[in-house]
Amino acid sequence: MYQIITEDGRAKRAVFETVHGTVQTPVFMNVGTAAAIKGAVATTDLQQIGTQIELSNTYHLHVRPGDQVVRQLGGLHRFMVWDKPILTDSGGFQVFSLSGLRRIKEEGVYFQSHVDGRKIFMGPEESMQIQSNLASTIAMAFDECPSSVAERSYIENSVARTTRWLVRCKEEMARLNSLPDTINPRQMLFGINQGGVCEDIRIAHAQEISGLDLDGYAVGGLAVGESHEEMYQVLDAVVPHLPRNKPTYLMGVGTPANILEAVDRGVDFFDCVYPSRNGRHGHVYTAFGKLNLFNARYELDPRPIEEGCGCPACRNYSRAYIRHLLKAKEMLGMRLCVLHNLYFYNHLMEEIREAIEQRRYGEYKKQKLAGLLSGEQN
Q1: Which residues are annotated as a binding site for substrate?
Q2: According to its UniProt record, which residues of this chain constitute the active site (predicted)?
């Protein structure tokens, strides 16, 4: 169940009840593609840094260790020792990114594994079956993610196919949830809006899938090459046509600035690999933009990454020490940077929720963006 607590303009502060606990929104989902956050971050760490939801990927877990393996071990929650909500991406984006290794048909997609080259077929029913085996809290519908620069005729046909697949996903999810041996019979299903940067196609698709009364709705196919301005224009156009009484999820986004802007347009859920990927390369987020800890200026810097930050890295270690670890290729350096970045994102969402509750989101966003974009490195 999704309930809006406060609205400030189009920004929404809400709670989302699931079988694995309550989610406070807006929320950033920490990305653990193969059931682990890259950078040696454990689920016990996620608990300590304020993570509400973990996100894993259907395709990658299907390839290894195999969704049947996860099912036999009690589902993803028990497998990775995480008792809070998990969202599983359908695998659609990964499948369609394998452009040289796949063929799209009405029944689904035939493709080759990027790991060992073996032939795999995945369609709406298969994606739902895999996600049911994983027993995630929220399953994503299997969709096609067309390129934002594809021909309009291709996008129209692709979106129509995605709608047909969504109907099949809903029917298969209902069947799987009714089976007596299903691990999570209360698994939720989110549908995905597509349409590239064609606003009219996006709006028509949003209106069509809204009638399916799903548990939530995602905006997919953005942050894949279009400008930030184009992304915001699509959100301005499409979000008002998605159900207000259901959570809205912007897939694969993004930077702190992207999140601040998208919240202002009514988005509730976010995920992105930026905090973990950047952290593994020594790039860490602060209220005044990113720092590159490989920079020689931090060689003798005794300060934490960010003054006043409560993450495990900032509470205990200096920029100089973390820089040394990174330069020495010690895994601890990556780990501390990833922990800091995830804490930064989770804490940013706490601030956002508080600002909406106090109906000062516009002012908060303006001040936060000014800091992030100031480049005031120190």
Answers
A1: 89-93, 143, 194, 221
A2: 89 (proton acceptor), 271 (nucleophile)
